[in-house]
User: What shape does this take?
Amino acid sequence: MKRTTLAGVLTLTFSAQWPVTVHAAHPLLTEDTGTQGTGHYQLELTHDLSTDRDAGAKTRSRSINGVLSVGLTDDLDVIIALPHERLTERTDATKTTASGYTDMEIAAKWRFYEEGALSFALRPGLGLPTGNEDEGLSSGHVTPSLFAVSTYTSDPWAFHLHVGYTRNLHPGPHERSHIYHVSVAAEYSVSESLRLVGDASIERNGERSGHPGVGSMVIGLVVSLTPDLDFDLGYRKGLTEPAADHAWLTGLALRF
Assistant: This one.
């Protein structure tokens, strides 16, 4: 694959993934309604390693993401995310790599309703063109998104629903303008320090060719090493052709 083609693949991939750049407790893709609380912070560092095989080529993608959440009020967070991507494709004769910081995202999460076990939140966001467009690591323009989130808790279970929309303001001839996302997740608290988690998601493919949906499912666990430090481990399986075949997910979340 030529470098220009690889850049195009990166651009299409990241344009579809901006809505979920910042997500609920890793390794889930599904957002939840939880916020940090006034004057509190969370720093999340994640590492996702995925592989995909297609038509004799093997693609390996590594994503490292730093996400800072700041509690402005008990019900309102500001979120900043800066991902770094490295994508390598191998064929029998060639190896091509693109690597660098991609577009950062600034978002807010507002929990506007909470009554008993049920809560609702809105999460507007903006993808900012901070990546290198020539390398395919940036859309080259602002990318707005809006998500609606609901959470229902009934100890030891928690359930989340995440529905959203992202607008590609300047689509290329092979890209879609409107990207929709739906995902659901469940958590089961085995103990105060261990949660089993899983989710399933479907998102409209940002590329017009191929399968119209990017579908995947995740299983994993979250271990609370201390009340303010979590470690997580997960596995994601692609369910449709545009999604990566397999991905291993790890992360740390520090609250202060």
